[in-house]
Design brief:
Strand content: 35-45%
Shape: globular
Structural class: mainly beta
Strand order of the largest sheet: 1-2-5-8-11-14-17-19-22-25
Radius of gyration: 19 Å
Order of helices and strands: EHEEEEEEEEEEEEEEEEEEEEEEEE
Helix content: under 10%
Number of strands: 25
Number of helices: 1
Oligomer: single chain
Largest sheet: 10 strands, parallel
């Protein structure tokens, strides 16, 4: 486990039970940035290794994070854990995305990335980005997040050699001036709330088309108070699955349907 604390005051790192902080080989087992921790991680292990990054910065951790595994040096997976009560995150500066994940191209299965327990009220941050997260040639799992007031998309799925997938689990995101996911991606939403999103004109809250690379599984979740212009709220590809999904108090303007016509072909459970 790679341990990050920008202030140097964390008493203990316990993101992953049973794992202690790894050394960079020079005696340091604590890093002030995620970038420094990932640089150390690149120097050890092999293509099948899984890396865990534990972020214990007291107060707000401010950093643009880039997890670039296009050369495969970071192994098969990287998980970022934000630990500690009230631990918030802010972007370090403007850009395409505050947290970028780039996988090795033409991999089967895709590189796997996870973000656990991130909390952030981005109205208090000095900088923003076009998207909070971007993912390319990889799968992204967002788990236990509490996010609000972001000026942009939640996730931007970037075209690469493979279409990425996005899982949002046990999370709440509210008041974003963008879509939940934008781009060509398979989407899973489970036990989560998405509210107060206002995507740009012509952009659905959740994307989809008829391509074989996309899927949508939306279960045990709620979509409410979102405003979409010139697009459906959910543009789900055929074969999508809805299960115990609450859709309430959303507004769709300049589009004939709240949901696409292929909605009747979804598996509703």
């Amino acid at each position: 486990m790679w341990c990050v604390d920008a202030t140097g005051t964390a008493p203990v790192f316990d993101c992953v039970p049973g794992l202690s902080c790894a050394s960079d080989g020079g005696g340091s087992d604590e890093f002030t940035t995620v970038a420094a921790a990932l640089s150390a991680a690149r120097s050890v292990g092999g293509p099948s290794d899984a890396h865990h990054v534990c972020i214990e910065t007291a107060g707000t951790h401010t950093e643009n994070i880039v997890v670039d595994n296009s050369d495969g040096a970071l192994g098969s997976s990287v998980d970022l854990y934000f630990n500690g009560e009230g631990n918030d995150y802010c972007p370090g500066g403007a850009g395409d995305a505050a947290v970028m994940f780039i996988g090795a191209p033409n991999q089967e299965p895709l590189n796997s990335y996870g973000v656990g327990s991130m909390a952030g009220d981005f109205a208090a941050c000095a900088s923003s980005s076009d998207a909070l997260f971007s993912v390319q040639d990889a799968s992204l799992r967002l788990d236990g997040a509490r996010l609000s007031n972001f000026d942009g998309h939640l996730v931007n799925a970037v075209a690469g050699s493979e279409s990425p997938s996005v899982q949002i689990l046990g999370s709440r995101a509210e008041r974003f001036t963008g879509a939940m996911v934008v781009g060509d991606a398979g989407v899973s939403l489970d036990n989560s709330e998405i509210s107060g999103f206002t995507p740009p004109f012509g952009t659905p809250l959740i994307p989809g088309d008829a391509s074989a690379t996309q899927f949508a599984n939306l279960t045990y979740s709620a979509l409410f108070g979102n405003v979409v212009l010139g697009a459906p709220l959910i543009k789900i590809p055929r074969g999508g699955r809805l299960g115990q999904l609450t859709v309430a108090a959303n507004i769709v303007v300049d589009y004939p349907n709240l949901l696409p016509r292929c909605f009747t072909e979804l598996e509703a459970v």
